[in-house]
């Protein structure tokens, strides 16, 4: 998984009825776009994440389509 600043990180819900959590990558802490990432959630809080298999990166160029 590789991401760049400005990409969206989508963490899919793990159980029925749980919504996806979307955050924006504000800093890439790993080398060459690899995790961990500093992300900002829609409510404004930030966290350091090393995404698992339930996450998907939506690159900036994909978001504009």
From TrEMBL:
Pfam families given in the database record: DUF1918
InterPro entries in alphabetical order: DUF1918
Positions of the UniProt region annotated as Disordered: 46-65
UniProt feature, compositional bias: Basic and acidic residues: 56-65
Domain DUF1918: 1-57
Protein name: DUF1918 domain-containing protein
Classification of source organism: Bacteria, Bacillati, Actinomycetota, Actinomycetes, Kitasatosporales
């Amino acid at each position: 998984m590789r991401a760049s600043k400005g990409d969206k990180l989508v963490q899919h819900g793990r159980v029925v009825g749980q919504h996806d959590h979307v955050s924006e990558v504000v800093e890439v802490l790993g080398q060459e776009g690899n995790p961990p990432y500093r992300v900002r959630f829609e409510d404004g809080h930030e966290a350091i994440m090393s995404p698992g298999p339930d996450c998907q990166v939506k690159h900036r160029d994909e978001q504009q389509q």
